[in-house]
C-alpha cells in the first residue's frame, strides 16, 4: 500500500501546511514533549486484548502534548487549537507530518547507527501485534 501525503491539512477550519521539521523545531519538540513517549510505549507494550483501553487513556493523558506539538509545528496558538481543533484533525496533521519527515526511514537509520555501536534498540515484539 502506498501512502500519498498531503501538503496541507485543515485544523479548526484553517488550512495549515505540512512541512519538514527543522533542527530548531526538533530541539523545541524535545523540550515540549512530556508524557507522550511513555504513553506510546505503554500502548505498544500492552497485551493485544487490552490495547484499546490503554489507547483511550493515552489519548486523554497526551492531549496537552499533542496540542503543544501541533502549535509548535503549525504556528497556531495552542489555546486556539484546543478551542477549535478536533482530535481527528490533529491526528491527520501528525500522520502527514510523519510521512513528510519520513519517520519510518529515520527510525531505521537510527537503529542502523546504534547497532554497530553495540546499542540494541528495542524492536516491537512481533508476537504481540
Question: Would you mind describing this structure in some detail?
Answer:
- The protein is mainly alpha-helical and 129 residues long.
- Helix content is 60%, strand content 6%.
- The protein has helices spanning 23-32, 36-45, 51-74, 78-84, 87-100, 103-114; strands at residues 8-11, 14-17.
- It has a two-stranded antiparallel ribbon.
- Helix 1 packs across helix 3 (51-74) and helix 3 packs across helix 4.
- 14% of the residues are buried.
Low-confidence stretches: 124-129
Largest sheet: 2 strands, antiparallel
**Whole-number radius of gyration?**
16 Å
Identify the quaternary structure here.
Answer: single chain
Which H/E pattern describes the elements? EEHHHHHH
The dominant shape is: globular
Give the amount of beta strand, in percent: 5-15%
Brief synopsis:
This protein is mostly helical. The chain has helices at residues 23-32, 36-45, 51-74, 78-84, 87-100, 103-114; strands at residues 8-11, 14-17.
